[in-house]
């Protein structure tokens, strides 16, 4: 069992570089199997979700080579076969194989997806889109089979009842090789969707409107290999900007696309965080007194649900009381009880998290309940007086590339320890 041990209350300074976006790469890798040639991805983060996807691709006969941050995916040996349940279940984004296998073979047999437990995470919108394109769905135990009735999908107009990143990307993956035109209305607008559309268009797909709420896809016969640079991870960037504001004495966060973080930066400015934004970096100064603010998450370009938990420790440093409301995942509250164990004045009250800032955090033994809750505990541990031991760190390693090395380089006293 892996744990993270932190001795807190040390000032951090220096530079930290953001890796490629987890939520892009977990879609780009399944997208690559739609190509007839080799797809090379640059800027791939060193996270366990990527390891899990490589393992899945290899079982399917795809050859994958990794050289530092470059991943070369050769799908020429790809076989149409049922997906192994254990592997698929290890990460939620495995659902992107539904769309890419359907698009490639007209059929996909897959286990139901896993990932962080944030309460109910339905996939009804994904399935509704596949059905609209002519797929039939059947279940056997934990396995689901999707089959294009005609052996081929057809373009359709699909209205998404809820704005969903996963359903939008999955529909694109299924539609790029479908016959005719697909229109996605009320599409999600996250930057990762633009990244996936850019890769697919460079492979020869005809996708317009990614990044807006109406996306149009004209199906094409075949797609070829290409080379693609993964966008920087805006959630990792937001996490480290919040961390720098909480414990930094001058930290530059580099490889950042500011436009992807506007609502987050606006919230920090409302708190009184002092920072300088330049073309591809954010310099976070040592902070004075900060103000408690209300936070409410919403789909992009609103405040990201993935940044709600990593921001919480910084909110606990601010003066005053306020609330946090997650409208996307109401059950994203696993960090609250753990922060309370570290002496934070925070609790769940109805559909919100209520906090009173300004109280000093104390080191404690805590548990990461999911990926972003884990990031919140790392920041809290760095802020706290004394030692913090975080268990369940596998969650953190799913999404934060080289986190121990990156934080050690800033002067943090942080170690990964293995226990029986
Ligand atoms: C993605 C991100 C995740 C982020 C989330 C919201 C990846 C791999 N994960 O997850 O980090 O927290 O977006 O920004 O990119 N919903 C339905 N039916 C569906 C699908 C979704 O009702 O078929 C609901 C969900 O319960 C949720 C909302 O739609 O309330 C948004 O979810 P969605 O954008 O789909 O999240 P994911 O794509 O799973």
Automatic annotation (TrEMBL):
Record keywords: Cell cycle, Cell division, Cell shape, Cell wall biogenesis/degradation, Cytoplasm, Peptidoglycan synthesis, Pyruvate, Transferase
Major site of localization recorded for this protein: cytoplasm
Residues that coordinate or bind phosphoenolpyruvate: 22-23
Catalyzed reactions: phosphoenolpyruvate + UDP-N-acetyl-alpha-D-glucosamine = UDP-N-acetyl-3-O-(1-carboxyvinyl)-alpha-D-glucosamine + phosphate
Summary of the function given for this chain in its UniProt record: Cell wall formation. Adds enolpyruvyl to UDP-N-acetylglucosamine.
Keyword DNA repair: no
One GO MF term: UDP-N-acetylglucosamine 1-carboxyvinyltransferase activity
InterPro entries to which the protein is assigned, alphabetical: Enolpyruvate_Tfrase_dom, Enolpyruvate_Tfrase_sf, MurA_subfamily, RNA3'P_cycl/enolpyr_Trfase_a/b, UDP_GlcNAc_COvinyl_MurA
Major enzyme class: transferase
Similarity field: Belongs to the EPSP synthase family. MurA subfamily.
Pathway(s) of this molecule: Cell wall biogenesis; peptidoglycan biosynthesis
Compartment list: Cytoplasm
Residues that coordinate or bind UDP-N-acetyl-alpha-D-glucosamine: 92, 121-125, 306, 328
Ranges where the Enolpyruvate transferase domain occurs: 7-407
Enzyme nomenclature, EC number: 2.5.1.7
Cellular component GO terms held in the UniProt record: cytoplasm
Source organism (scientific name): Streptococcus merionis
Active-site residues from the entry: 116 (proton donor)
One record GO biological process: UDP-N-acetylgalactosamine biosynthetic process
Record-listed 2-(S-cysteinyl)pyruvic acid O-phosphothioketal modification sites: 116
Name this protein carries in UniProt: UDP-N-acetylglucosamine 1-carboxyvinyltransferase
HAMAP family noted in UniProt: MurA
């Amino acid at each position: 069992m892996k744990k993270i041990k932190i001795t807190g209350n040390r000032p951090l300074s220096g530079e930290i570089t953001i890796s490629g976006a987890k939520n892009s790469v977990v879609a780009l890798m399944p997208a690559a199997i739609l190509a007839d040639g080799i797809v090379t991805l640059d800027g791939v983060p060193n996270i366990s979700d990527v390891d899990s996807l490589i393992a899945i691709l290899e079982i399917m006969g795809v050859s994958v080579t990794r050289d530092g941050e470059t991943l070369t995916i050769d799908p020429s040996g790809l076989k149409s076969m049922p997906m192994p349940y254990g592997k698929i279940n290890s990460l939620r984004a495995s659902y992107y194989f539904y769309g890419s296998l359907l698009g490639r073979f007209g059929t996909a047999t897959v286990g139901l997806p896993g990932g962080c437990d944030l309460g109910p995470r339905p996939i009804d919108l994904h399935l509704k889109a596949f059905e609209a394109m002519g797929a039939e769905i059947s279940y056997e135990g934990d396995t689901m089979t999707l089959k294009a009735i005609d052996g081929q999908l057809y373009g359709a107009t699909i209205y998404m009842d809820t704005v969903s990143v996963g359903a939008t990307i999955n529909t694109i993956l299924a539609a790029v090789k479908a016959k005719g035109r697909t229109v996605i209305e009320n599409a999600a607008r996250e930057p990762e969707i633009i990244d996936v559309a850019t890769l697919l268009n460079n492979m020869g797909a005809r996708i317009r409107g990614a990044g807006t709420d109406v996306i149009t896809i004209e199906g094409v016969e075949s797609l070829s290999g290409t080379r693609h640079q993964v966008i920087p991870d805006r959630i990792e960037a937001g996490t480290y900007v919040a961390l720098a504001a909480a414990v930094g004495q001058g930290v530059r966060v580099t490889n950042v696309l500011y436009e992807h973080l506007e609502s987050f930066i606006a919230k920090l400015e409302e708190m009184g965080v002092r920072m300088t934004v330049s073309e591809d970096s954010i310099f976070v100064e040592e902070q004075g007194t900060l103000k408690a603010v209300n936070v409410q998450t919403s789909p992009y370009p609103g405040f990201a649900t993935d940044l709600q938990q990593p921001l919480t420790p910084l909110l606990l440093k601010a003066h005053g009381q306020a609330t946090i409301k997650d409208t996307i995942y109401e059950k994203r509250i696993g960090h609250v009880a753990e922060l309370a164990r570290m002496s934070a004045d925070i609790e769940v009250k109805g559909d919100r998290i209520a906090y009173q800032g300004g109280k000093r955090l104390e080191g404690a033994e805590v548990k990461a309940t999911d990926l972003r809750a884990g990031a919140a505990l790392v920041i809290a541990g760095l802020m706290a007086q004394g030692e913090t031991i975080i268990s369940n760190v596998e969650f953190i390693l799913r999404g934060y590339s080289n986190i121990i090395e990156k934080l050690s380089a800033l002067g943090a006293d942080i170690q990964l320890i293995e226990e029986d």
